[in-house]
From TrEMBL:
Stated name of the protein: Mannosyl-glycoprotein endo-beta-N-acetylglucosamidase
Organism: Alteromonas ponticola
Keywords tagged on the record: Membrane, Transmembrane, Transmembrane helix
Superkingdom: Bacteria
Transmembrane segments: 7-27
Cited InterPro entries: Bax-like, MGlyc_endo_b_GlcNAc-like_dom
UniProt keyword Transmembrane helix, yes or no: yes
One Pfam family it belongs to: Glucosaminidase
Domain Mannosyl-glycoprotein endo-beta-N-acetylglucosamidase-like residues, every copy: 129-258
The UniProt record lists the keyword Glycoprotein: no
Length: 263
């Protein structure tokens, strides 16, 4: 085989490996082992058959009625964590020593949200506040609708995966029909809606690909402005290979579906 052809094959293999490693960070099957993930009463109920709604408005109403309470519950959980961190910040700034239980919880959160190792406690708490924050309901609903075709995809129907999340452990989910030869990813399957939503929101809050989203959110908070889905969508260029076109589609969906948010 010609040397150039051999080199070309090696470079292609390296490129595929880089893509796999990058996407592996988008989802892990690690389960929280210290803090309880909140679960709504409908978390383990079967996903409604959204395709059975022939009327588009009724389908959207059913979609929002099913998913919106879950998103709101997860945001309440994130705000509870923020309050905990802010309380610790006040204690540290006052010169008080944190309890062993509080330090254990901070260590778990630092690992769960991938905070840089070796930071002093005050810097850890600052970094956690940047990552642990709400995601606007309208943004989450727009992504869920976009990724699951308004809840009709088999990944949503059979595995509560409304967000297009991948996993990389054999048997962890569904093998996509259009998966390229040599690819190892599967579309993740979850035991209930709460676990799926928690994982998706944790992904946006901790992955380096969405650093811009978190910076936009932090700027809005600093200036005491409303955290909106339209604004944060600008930080999702890396969520889809479509890039800017994907962001524009999300923003259009957010604007067009505002009436369903108020119901």
């Amino acid at each position: 085989m010609h040397k150039w052809e051999t080199l070309k094959i090696i470079l292609i293999a390296i490129g595929v490996l880089v893509i796999v490693v990058f996407n592996a960070w988008l989802f892990t099957d690690k389960e929280p082992d210290l803090l309880d993930v909140p679960e709504t009463e409908q978390a383990e109920q079967p996903v409604p058959d959204f395709a059975s709604f022939e009327n588009v408005d009724k389908r959207k109403d059913a979609f929002y009625a099913y998913l919106k309470p879950e998103v709101e519950k997860q945001n309440e959980y994130l705000l509870t964590l923020r309050h905990f961190i802010q309380t610790l910040q006040r204690q540290v700034s006052s010169g008080n020593t944190l309890t062993e239980k509080d330090l254990e919880r901070v260590a778990w959160l630092a690992k769960e949200y991938r905070i840089t190792k070796g930071l002093a406690l005050p810097q850890q708490l600052d970094a956690l506040l940047l990552k642990i924050d709400i995601l606007p309901v309208d943004l989450v609903m727009a992504q869920a609708a976009n990724e699951s075709a308004w809840g009709t995809s088999r990944f949503a129907q059979q595995g509560y995966n409304f967000f297009g999340l991948w996993c990389f452990k054999r048997g962890c989910g569904f093998v996509p029909a259009a998966r390229n030869d040599g690819a190892a990813h599967e579309v993740a399957k979850f035991p209930n809606l709460s676990r799926a939503t928690y994982t998706y929101m944790r992904n946006l809050n901790r992955h380096y690909a969405y650093k811009e989203l978190r910076q936009i959110r932090a700027t809005l908070r600093k200036n005491q402005m409303t955290i909106t889905g339209f604004a944060l969508a600008e930080g999702l260029l890396n969520y889809s290979e479509r890039g800017a076109a994907y962001v524009e589609e999300l923003q259009s969906m957010i604007k067009y579906n505002q009436e369903y948010m108020s119901k």
